[in-house]
Amino acid sequence: MSNLKHVAIIMDGNGRWAQNKGLSRAEGHIAGTQNIRRVVRQLIVENVQYVSLYAFSTENWDRPVAEVDSLLQILSDSIANETAEMHEEGVRIRHLGRIDRLPNRLQKAIENSVNLTRKNTVINLNVAFDYGGRDEIVQAVRRLVESEVKPDQITEETLTEHLYTGGMPDPDLIIRTAGEMRISNFMIWQASYSEYYSSPACWPDFDEIELKNALAEYSRRKRKFGALNKAVT
Question: Which domains occur in the chain, in start order?
Answer without folding.
Answer: 6-134+170-219 (3.40.1180.10)
